[in-house]
Amino acid sequence: MAINWKTYPARGVYDTLLAAPGEVRPVASSLCDYLGSLTEKEVRDRRAAADLAIRNLGITFTVYSEEGGSIDRAWPFDIIPRVIARSEWTRIERGLRQRVEALNLFIDDIYHDQRIVKDKVFPAELLADSKNFRPQCVGATPAHGIWAHICGSDLVRDRDGTMYVLEDNLRVPSGVSYMLENRLVMKRVFPELFANSTILPVDDYPSQLFDCLASLSPRRGRRPEVVVLTPGIHNSAYFEHAYLAQQMGAELCLGSDLVVGDDDCVYKKAITGLERVDVIYRRIDDLYLDPESFNSDSVVGVKGLFRAWRNGKVGLANAPGAGVADDKVVYAFVPAMIRYYLDEEAILPNVPTYKCVDRKERDHVLANLARLVVKPANESGGYGMLIGPQASSKDLEDFARHIRRDPRNYIAQPMITLSTAPTLVEDHVEPRHVDLRPFILSSKSTYVTTGGLTRVALRKGSTVVNSSQGGGSKDTWIVDHEAS
Question: Residue 325 in contact with residue 309, Cβ under 8 Å?
Fold first, then answer.
């Protein structure tokens, strides 16, 4: 069946392409007209071409199985893109810049004067119980005062179209390689759409990332030696590590490829001997980064690396300790941080959030558990969540017990009616829920990707978009339709 927008069920929820059945949003009119003109065979052929491109390009992701192994899978991709108007994106971009600036000021403050704690804007007890606060980082001064050089903030739309920030990922945010590859696949499958539309490009990210990393080099006046540090092929994001290294012209290294010398400089092992490394884009969590300073059992890190960073002999992105702000309880305080550090109101709102560490808010959560989404403070990938309306009685009881036992570790949020996007399901189009992860680079200047990675819940009715739990993705188009 060819795509018929008049029968598409765009009701009761904000859909990214249609305001109602047959009522295409102006920003998506060219796209929907084109897709609607394709025959059933042409739609099938385009989807087959996308699947083939993904296989030929080797775009994969890794899912950990319950048996303890890992499975490498082809990247799940839908050929109908998500579209956002440039005029709206301009405001979103300003909101992301504002947010990341405040987060970096917060992290720097936390490892220095802790003014925000002394002024009682951020509770001291939350910092004391933080799993990602690194005492080793107190007093450290990274280049440009920036700790979170790469941030991925997850955005969701509610029923009325309001865009909210759902969370900020500041430890080792992943997904940007899929944003780039999605665009590459779409250009192969629909080259005519790119010839006739004002779709803003995304392919400058690798060069922007390199420039961001290069600015952290302790050695000036020469092209810095930048490497990507990966825990190895069994990591779920290994494809991305290898892809970004290749795109930047940087070397992909394991911890065993690097060594810290007596001069506290970092060197990589080469056939010709040791070669100094200036900047490391590390894709390893703090605790496994350096067995000398963090987890002594780590076999994927580099002994002495933290010491080299503290002594200014190497740049690390993100800086150790940046994860103190990658905490869903800390997230609840970001609007307050923006007021405190920038004297501004947040341009992008948070999803309303109940902090279980607060007795009054905890009581409300426990009394309304069946209507809320509960999240642990430091999990990622959609793991450890409770979706109240879909939970069993036993799950509700278990989570109530978890919350009472460790309230600091939980927040709760009302169910957001996530926006949908038309998605090809077998031989027709159905709405599927989506979110969006733009990436923000911070160094001497700030760069925001033009759009980001749109993740889509491929199962009907599901709101879980994580690829590790059955989600897929779409290309994200920022379109200057008013200029066309």
Answer: no
Residues in the chain: 484
pTM: 0.93
User: Which pLDDT tens digit goes with each residue over 259-284?
Assistant: 999 999 999 999 999 999 999 999 99
- CA 204 to mean position of chain CA atoms: 18
DSSP 267: E
Residue pointed to by tokens 């305080």: 333
**From the centroid of its chain, how far is CA 316?**
19
Q: Are 463 and 471 in contact (CB under 8 A)?
A: no
Angle between helices 176-189 and 40-57 (to 10 degrees): 130
Question: Is 231 in contact with 241 (CB distance < 8 Å)?
Answer: no
Locate the DSSP E strands across 338-427.
354-355, 372-376, 386-387, 410-414, 420-425
Q: What is the pLDDT of residues 456-481, one digit of tens each?
A: 998 888 877 877 667 899 999 999 87
Structure tokens, 19: 């305001």
SS3 231: coil
Alpha carbons 30 and 236: distance in angstroms, whole number: 37
Q: What angle do CA 303, 212, 219 make, to 5 degrees?
A: 60
At 439, give phi and psi (nearest 5°): -120, 135
